[in-house]
Backbone:
């Protein structure tokens, strides 16, 4: 459940990860501003297995349930995380992740984004989530 609330200073959002239902794919936005987004990720199996980066987004991931492995370039293990553990991934860092537990993987992703008018490097085409991709090496 996410609820947008108007305040005298600015809008804010109150959300509950436990009751947030993902309505498309594996990700649901629960709060969004001009420069910051909060997402809930739910994965019964798998993960974001395509090697990708978000050139203009810094992101902090926190595991709430399950276990996950994050990998970087050349399939280098960045970290294996369980509940209440997290990873910070700076913008432009290539990564992918996979669930490694029997139970559902539930994580939050809190990201900041550089406004379009301040971007000064060409990263190539970006998808609707601000990602660019490259091939992972095969094992």
Residues:
């Amino acid at each position: 459940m996410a609820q947008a609330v108007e305040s005298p200073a600015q809008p804010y959002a109150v959300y509950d990860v436990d009751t947030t239902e993902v309505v498309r794919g594996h990700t649901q936005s629960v709060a969004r501003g001009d420069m910051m987004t909060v997402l809930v990720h739910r994965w019964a199996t798998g993960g974001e297995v395509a090697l990708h980066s978000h050139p203009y987004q810094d992101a902090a991931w926190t595991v709430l349930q399950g276990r996950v492995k994050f990998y970087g370039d050349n399939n280098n293990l960045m970290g294996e995380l369980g509940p209440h553990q997290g990873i910070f991934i700076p913008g432009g860092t290539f990564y992918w992740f996979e669930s490694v537990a029997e139970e559902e993987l539930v994580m939050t992703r809190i990201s900041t984004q550089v406004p379009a008018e301040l971007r000064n490097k060409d990263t190539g085409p970006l998808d609707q989530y601000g990602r660019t991709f490259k091939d992972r090496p095969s094992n």
Observations:
- The longest strand covers residues 57-65.
- The domain at 2-115+126-133 is CATH 2.60.120.10 (Jelly Rolls).
